[in-house]
Structures are given as structure tokens and as C-alpha cells.
Design goal:
The chain has helices at 7-16, 20-27, 31-44, 55-66, 72-79, 83-103, 113-116, 121-124, 155-172; strands spanning 138-141, 151-154. The protein is mainly alpha-helical. Strands 1-2 form a two-stranded antiparallel sheet. This is DUF8040 domain-containing protein.
Length: 178
């Protein structure tokens, strides 16, 4: 790992080859599934960000926001990127998962989103009882009150991306926490 200069790339390498329990705790999927998803994205979706950011690092950044519930500023700091690049990485992965949703049918055996939403910290915050839904269908993601750095994204688009991710995990995982 000495040849890897960027802190984000070092962190991605560290996470990819950590003990399985730590990996699953962070990514909410096993390493085999993670690498299969990375390969699928590389094969099927052109990246819109700098080639210095690997698809694996991009997925980790996305999962840091969606699975861990961290803000863009926290994630940018942790991965040694600026907030704008971090937001671009998030949107790039969201696009890739949207393509995945369009190209692959959801398996009949895949648990419904209502059962798997607990996997994604960002989806837990959509609880209709705690907050009124935005009439425009937009949700704020990765928001930090002090930095005001979140993105507003279409809730249905994000939900469908998470459904595609849940389905991919369900179909490929040796481990499924749903």
C-alpha cells in the first residue's frame, strides 16, 4: 500500500481487505458482492468523475452517506476530497444504481423495500411520522446543519436505486442482513 498516494485510495484499500465483519458493518454487504457490484458498474456505466477515483472508492463514499448516514462534509473529510467532488461521486453512483434498476428485474424472492430500508440509514430518516413529506418528492441527503452541504434528490429515484442495490445484494450475497 506504500505506492498509493491518495488518502481516499488508501482508505478504500484498507476497507476492501479488512476483516469481513468490519466490511459488512460499513458496507452492509459482503466483500464478494461488493466486488461483483463494482465489476457490474465498470462494465455497464461510464463514470462521470475523475479516473483517479476508483469505482470501489466511489461505492464506499456512497455507502458512507447512505448506509452510515454521514454528511457530505464528514465524508469529504474522511475520504480527503472536497465537498463538491464528494457530491459528484454520490450522484455518479446514484446514476449507476439507476442504470442497474433499469436493466435488471427485481427478483421475486427479494425482500420488499419496507423490510430492507433499515439497512440504509438515509432511508430510516424518511419516517413519515417524524417529518412531513416534501410535496415535490425531494429529500435532503448528507446534510450537515452547520455546513449546509447536503443535496436534494428525488426520493423515488433514490428509493429505486436502493431497491436495485438491495436486489443485487440479495441475488449475489453470501451474507444478507435483511
Amino acid at each position: 500500500m506504500d505506492g498509493i498516494e491518495a488518502m481516499g485510495a488508501r482508505r478504500a484499500m484498507s476497507l476492501m481487505f479488512t476483516v469481513p465483519e468490519r466490511f459488512i458493518s460499513f458496507a452492509h454487504m459482503d466483500q464478494k458482492t461488493f466486488f461483483e457490484l463494482s465489476d457490474w458498474i465498470l462494465t455497464n456505466v461510464a463514470s462521470q468523475i475523475t479516473p483517479e477515483i476508483s469505482v470501489e472508492e466511489s461505492l464506499f463514499v456512497f455507502l458512507d452517506i447512505v448506509a452510515q448516514g454521514n454528511s457530505f462534509s464528514e465524508v469529504a473529510y474522511g475520504w480527503d476530497h472536497d465537498v463538491e467532488l464528494t457530491q459528484g461521486i454520490f450522484l455518479n453512483v446514484l446514476n449507476a444504481l439507476t442504470v442497474l434498476r433499469e436493466r435488471r428485474e427485481i427478483a421475486d424472492s427479494c425482500p420488499p423495500f419496507t423490510q430492507t430500508r433499515k439497512r440504509w440509514e438515509v432511508a430510516r430518516r424518511w419516517n413519515q411520522k417524524r417529518s412531513r413529506p416534501n410535496p415535490s418528492g425531494v429529500v435532503r441527503i448528507g446534510y450537515d446543519e452547520m455546513c449546509r452541504d447536503g443535496l436534494e434528490v428525488d426520493q423515488e429515484c433514490l428509493k429505486e436505486a436502493l431497491v436495485a442495490l438491495n436486489n443485487f445484494i440479495h441475488e449475489n450475497a453470501d451474507y444478507d442482513e435483511s
